[in-house]
Structure formats: structure tokens, C-alpha cells
Amino acid sequence: MELQDVHKHWRTTYERIEKFISPHYFCDSNLLSRQTSNRAAALSIQHLKSQEFLGSWLDKKTLTTESLWEDIDLGFKFGPVWSIHWFRVQLPKADWLKEAFAASKQSGSINSEVHFQWNSDTEALIFSPTGRIIQGVTSLHDGTRETAELSPDDQNDLQSPFNESQLMLYLQCSVSELFGAGPSCVRPPDPKGRAICPNANSSILHLLMEIAKELKETDQGHRALYCGNSIVNLCLQCRYDDAIKLADEFFKASRGTTMEPAGTSKNRMLLHAMGHCHIDTAWLWDYAETRRKTARSWSSTLRLMRKHPKMTFVVSQAQQLDWLKTDYPNLFSEIVSLAKQDRFLPVGGCWVEMDTNLPCCESLLGQFHYGQKFFQRHFGRKCPEFWLPDTFGYSGQLPQLMRHAGMSWFLTQKLSWSLVNKFPHHSFVWRGIDGSEVLAHFPPGDSYNMQVLPSELAFSASNHRDKGRTQHAGFLYGHGDGGQGPGPDMLDRLERLSDCPGLPRLSHGTPRTLFTGLESDRANLHSWTGELYLELHNGTYTTHRSIKLGNFRCESALRVVEFLLALGVLDETATVESLDSLDTAWHLLLLNQFHDVLPGSSIGRVYADSARHYNQILSVCSRFRSMDEVSTPAASVSELALVNPTQWSMSLTLPEDHGRRLVSLPPLSVCRLDQLLLKEATPPEPTAKLLDSKVVVLENEHLKAEIDSFGRVVSLISKSIGAGRECLLAPVQLTYYHDMPLFWDAWDIMDYSWETRATVAEDATGKGRLIESCRIDSSHSCQTVYELTSYPTSSDATDSNLVSRIEHQVALLPERPHCLTFCTRVTPWRAAHTLLRVELPCNVRGVTRASAEIQAGRVDRPTRGNTSWDWAAHEHCSHRYLDLSEANFGLATIKQAIYGGSVRDGSVVNLSLLRSPRGPDAEADFNSEHCLRYALMPHQGLAGLTDSSSCRSLVATACQFGYQSDVELTRLRLTDRTAVPLTTSPLVTFEQPAPGSSQSVVLDWIKPVRSVDQSKWFLVRLYESVAVSYRIVACEFICQELVVD
User: Fold this and answer.
1) Contact between 141 and 179 (Cβ < 8 Å)
2) What integer is the mean pLDDT of 818-839?
3) pTM of the full structure
4) How many beta carbons lie within 10 A of that of residue 850, not counting itself?
5) Positions marked catalytic
6) Phi/psi of residue 400, each to 5°?
7) Which residue segment(s) compose the domain that 589 sits in?
8) Which family does it belong to (predicted)?
């Protein structure tokens, strides 16, 4: 390669090249002004007047009825935001296009491509007149605009079937941008948004190679600089073919042996490049828009793969592929065909890329079950890798669940977002809480949207945390979220940079080639045990309380229904028919566990969808089980039944219309209410009295609590455990905090918010105010009423519309005599940028770790901020309990669908009850009523957890807490279709093994299983709950006769 003489001033040479290809500087005379040798404007643009056509294609009547279409000019405005619009574009005459396509076939010509350009600042999908999808186009977040390349094969397909002399394209446009329609990527959308239709034209476009610029101080870097300078000179002389040849010579020489010693290329890091287009199933757009995003993105990818036979592409989320199969079956068929060639690869094995903190264990297993089932059915194989690049932390139970789903490999990159500590590995063995192991990999480029730039390759090498242990790493490239995935420029750079001295090697790869390479180095890798905590987005455990409660209730309802179906309570016909409906209900539940939906970080339109889906799930649960949910209190007790799907006896207090009587349900039973009432329990009533000091005392045989006039629990004495021990170090009280993160409003609770602590009862700022002092109500509970004024959101900080009413109830309930139970009602919540917590200072000394329940197990977490890893994790997710235990005494906080919390200063438990971010959903929990239930339960401590009674008491109380609070979900009216007479006897008896074996085994779920021969099978899900190793000697299930003529 001959280089023209240049001065040795690096900066001027570099900036000369930069300006020559800039879209912003000297555009009238740089390469952009020269790259199109021929342009032709569209002959006409028409807009479909009606917005009713939301489907994937138009019917014949719409295509042919001219009165339905209106001619439009440039600058035409259309909206509102989220609306769908169709456009019809008449292309230049056929002779012009024939000449353009002929030129495109001339090998080596600069005029090598024909492009259709549509710039409307919307996302659009281009169709031929026959309805064939060509590809999607969108405006990217960096301001650049995509074009659609037309191939010679498209030529005949562009003719209108109704007028052969016309060449047409049709566009379906969504009035939104790549990241929604808000003023920034995490704000609510602007409902007044409109899009503008500027020029639409055909152009000849050549993309100049991007000059290698990363290796500034090396020979290779200077050669790239000089080569780029020479190319500028050639282009100024219109010697474009010579410029391409010069670039080809440079990269050909780079792949030779002249640039580095022989054999050293193989010693460089190998990046396994995979095309990627991460599409959030919902986020700043709703589910309907995602269905169109997948078609726009994957049609563009398929078109690119036809030109690049070595290109590979990975796609996760069975739900999105299922939508594509329904909406665009031709695209789906092409994907299946390429999957057989190991090029367009389904990965991940899950229904959606879900949140892994909040769903229950059965839901996580459902993600794997339905995802793997879909991939097996339609692609002939299951996924060996769990692919979850973007979610807000990873449960320590996942390795075990992955192994159950047949997966051995795991890929993500989200921990690179952590604010404080840098995770020490990029490739490692991840060990779950039970000891299960999987091989984990974080692509060292810390992104799944790489652009195949030299700087990204260099960063992947320098940032790699496992240098010397393995040479293999992943490299995911492409625009996500509707940005069409990989672009032709990325493929060009990938080819040219495949073996560039000074940079890692780059090769088209697959998940299997990546992990096979890592497996060969597995012995060199370190391990990590337990959860993978993300030091960011911890507010998602609390944001949008309504969707978290909806998810919890749907999980509970499905648990009850599957219990009934599995044990044959329904007649056989109903059971068979119900399984398909059950799948539908599970699909909807799993869909709404997507990692931006269940965490509460989507726009309001998404939660309107979720509310509708939850109602559908509950309707399915009510409809197909041969029993109807009680809708009125007038039903006779002989028509009612109650269900206990747990392995323990469960006490319930009936609603007001049945006298608030206490009944006891046997384990795993369905009981008629009239028969239960014959065995009505009559425990001693708790006492409640008001002392002269305005202190209310609640007392039963196990506990004695004192509540002051501000509603704070100032004392809790355990009478039956600890010989009268005081359980509290300080009052239990409601607190609030100013909650304004750095950027991610719905996502983050920042550590500095702790500095703004104030109590609702006694507040020096005047925002918290006692309205009604502690009083005793008719149920022998203590109730206090407060008001909380919002932090100012407008110029009028005293706006009465921003006042929240909080009713705080403390009780000793007959059904939970060992617990002090709390119910905090907010009617409504109107405190903007405010975090409401309850503070529970526990008198448990010397505790350095707290036990928190997660899915089907528990983890221990530090209670003090000794290290940066400790204090960075200032908010954690837990499920039904959070426990602090000494050797012989413990105090557990039990809760219903309250996930966010922390333990500070060794023993102060804080539960995060409500937040009120204003974006992306400005109405997240705002102006809504909420009821939050939690309880304190003393127990026998660490030693007691291995004991039968203590272990059963803690775990059983936690497991049953939600069911006792939502008894209406399992309260049924019997019908003539009921299969068996229901009694107070258990349908299944779960026999705990003999002494010396585990007393902490939980029967979590019983569900029906489809079988090939249609015989009745059911699955029983068991887990060990408190991390105590025992051998299970026996586990016996005794079933009664369930079939009655």
C-alpha cells in the first residue's frame, strides 16, 4: 500500500478525516455530498385516512379504494402518540429503477446500492404492494436515520397488483420514537406528540469504512491514519473505486504476518461476535407496540443475513417469537429455517426476560418451562444457556432452577451498572444457595449494544477481569429496542477488524462456541456463591405496589386452582378442558413478570394492560374450576367452601357477613363452611385496654404490646418465648424520606435518602401530622390516623390535593396469636417523591447477618455496613419474612407482597412500603388506595429453627400470611358440577419423616401434569426452607378416593 506524503501532525490529519465523513460539518462539500450520484423523489405520498387498521397488513378493499387515501405534502403532521398510520409511496418510474438496479450489480462500483429513505422520526415497517415485509426503518437515538436497501429481487414485487405501471411501497408507522415518546428516556410520554413527514426519496449510498483510531501510539494506528488520509485525497478526485481498493489492501495486510510476529495472533483474545437486538417486551411502549417492534427489527436482520452468510444472530423471549408467529407467519418461518442452520438462534429458554427478584419460585420455573417448551416445539431443541442480559439483580436460587431446566450456561452484563463496586469476574462458576453450579459469563465490553468499533474491541480486552485465565469472551452487537439490530456498517467493520494487530480477534460466533471455549478453561476460573446483587435499581422492589400485589394474588389464585385440578376435585371433563385455559393464564402472568413491568419501571399504558391481564387470570381461575367465586355475601353457608393449599392447619377469621368467627382448616383440604362451623374454634379473645397515660395495651397468652398515643409500638413482650423478653429496642413507627434519585426515578432509592429520615407521628417539618390519637376499635385492635403532606411538586407547596391519609392499625389476631400484626392503609397515596417505610428496631443483639426468604429458600445478608459491598446494598429484596436471630431468640418480620427493605445498625429492620416516582409512569401508585400488611413474630432463634415446632411455626406463619389476609381468593361457592362431597378431611396427607430427618421441608405447590396417555398425574414441588441439611427418610402422600359416580 503506497501512502502519499503527509505531515506528521496527528491531530490535524485525524480531524481532517473526521470532518470529511461528518454529518454535521461541511456537509455541502464532504463525502456526504458526494455519496449519492443519483436521486429521485417519490412521485406521491398518500395517507390512509382511517386509523382502524392496526393489523399486520391491509385488506384488498382498503388497498384499492382511492377515497380512503389522501394526498399529503411534506411537513404533514400525524398523531396522536401511539397511534398507527399507513402511508402509500409511489416510487419513480420503472426505467429509472431498472438502471439503478443494473448499476447495483456492477461489482466494485461505488454506486452499489439502492436505498429508500423515509425520515418521519417514527418507527416504520415497509411492505411491498403484495404485503411482503421488506424491512423496518427508524430514527436511531444518536440522531442518525436508517434507510431501507432495495435489492434487484424486489423489483418485480414493487409493482402494484392493481396498476402495473406504478411502483409502490406501503409503510405502517407508529407515532413513537425508538425509546418511546417522552421528553427523555425515562419520563412519561407526551400525549400531544405529532410526527412530521419530510422528504421520502431513493438514493445511491456508499458507506465509507470507519478509520481505525484506537491504536494511536502504535505502527498499526499510524498506518490506519495515513491510509484514511489517502482515501480522503482519492475521494476528492472522485476515485472511489481506488479508495475502496486502498482500504481493502490495508486490512488484507493487517491480517497477514507483516504486522506482528508469526503465531502471536492466536495468543490474542477471541471475541465471539453475535448479532443482537435486545427488545424490551414493554417499557416506554406497550405490548402492542412490541409486537410491531419485533417485525421491524427482525425483518431488517433477516434481510441483512441474506447478504452476509456468516452472520449469526441471537434472540431471546419465547413470547416475542410467539407474537411474531401469530402476526407475521412468513417472517417466523424464515427464522425457523435459519435456526436450523445455527444462524438465527433462539436463546435464553424463558417466556420473557423476567425479573428474578419478585416472582415466586413456581413463576420462575414457569418461565423456564413455557420457554423451553416453545423452543422445543418450534425449533426442535431446548436452550442450554440462560440469557438474561438486562434485569435488576439475580436471585441466588437461579443456578438450581437453571439446572432443573436443562441449562448449564448463563450470560448477562447488567452487573456492570453497579454504582460502587466492580464485580471481580467476567467469566466464573456461579454457585447457587443449594450448591448447584453453572458457568457464567459477562461480556467484558459491558454492553449488549456494541457497534463493532475499534474502541469497543480495545475496551473488551483492557476491561477483561480474567486475563490469563481464558481468551474467550462474548461480543453482542446491534441496536436494541426497535433499532433494527445489526447494521450493514457493523458487518463491514466486523469483517475488516476480524484480525487487526493490537486488537482482540473478532469472529462470528454462537453461544455454543463461546461457552465451549470457556468450558475448556473452566479449571482456571474463580467461583461466586449466592445472589448477584445489582448496586442500582433497588427501588424496583417497591415501585408500583399495585402490580406487585396483583402478581402475588394471581400467583396465589393459580396455586389454589392447580391444587384443586391436580387432586381431582373437579370432574374429569372440566379438568381436561381447563389445562389450555391454565396455560393462557400462566402466559399472561409470566408476560407481566418482564423485568421492566413487574418492577414498576414502565409507562402507564403498560399497567393498564397488566391490570386487564390480572383480571383475566382471576377470571380464568374462577371460571374453569367448576366453582364460582362468591360475589355476594348472601350465599348460604352450605353453598360455601374454603381451600387450604398449604401443608399446615390454617386458622381463618370469617368476614363480617359470617360473624367474624374463627375456623380451622386441615392441611391440603377443601372444606365446606357449614361443616367447618360445627368445629368452630373458640380461642381466648385478646384484651385491649387504655391506660391513664394514654397508652393502649394489647395482650393475649403469648404477647403483650404497648402502643403510645402517637400509634407507635413502644413495647412488645414475648410471654411464651424468652421468659418475658422485651422484643424492641425502640418504638415501631412509620417514617418517610425524600426520594429523588440521580436519574432513574422509578428504579432507584439512593443511599443519601437515609439522611432525610422523618417520622410520620412527630415531624418537625410539619409534613407528617397526627390526626387521630391511638384508639381501640371493635375488633380489639388499636388504630391511629395520620396525614402526610407531599414534598412540593409545584409552586403551591400547600396544595391540599397532595395530602395522604394513613390509617395505621396494630392488632393481636385470633388466627395469628403468636404475632403482632400491622395493617397500614393509605387512602389515597399522594406524597410525590416520598418513600414511606415502617421502622422495626429489634432487640436482637450481636447479629451480623439477617436471614431473608427468597424463592424456595433463604439467604443471609450483612446487617452492618462494614465494607463497600455491605453499604452499597442498602436496600434488599425478600419475600415472606426477614429474620434476626440469636442462638436462643429471634424476631421475624412477616409480610404480604412487601419486597423492599433493609436491616441497619445490626438490628433495625426497615420495610419499604410505598414510593411515588413521577416517571416513566407519572401515576405510579399515586392517587391510589393501598393496604399493607406485616407482622412481628418472636421465635426460638437459630437453635430453634432446626426444631420441629419452631421451624414449622416460622415457615408456616410466613407461608400462610398472604392466604389468611386474602381469604376471599379461596372462598368458593359450590355448584351442581362439584365432583365430590367436600369434608373437613385432608385430600392429601403430608407425613413429616421420623426424628433425625428434616423438619423444614415445605410442600410448595401441587399442580396437574399433562400426560401422553391422558392419565392423571400431578406434580408435587418440595423444598428445604431454612438451609438445614438433613436426609429425608420418607415422604408419604396418602390420597383419598376422589371419583364419585
Assistant:
1) yes
2) 95
3) 0.91
4) 27
5) 390
6) -65, -45
7) 538-625
8) Belongs to the glycosyl hydrolase 38 family.
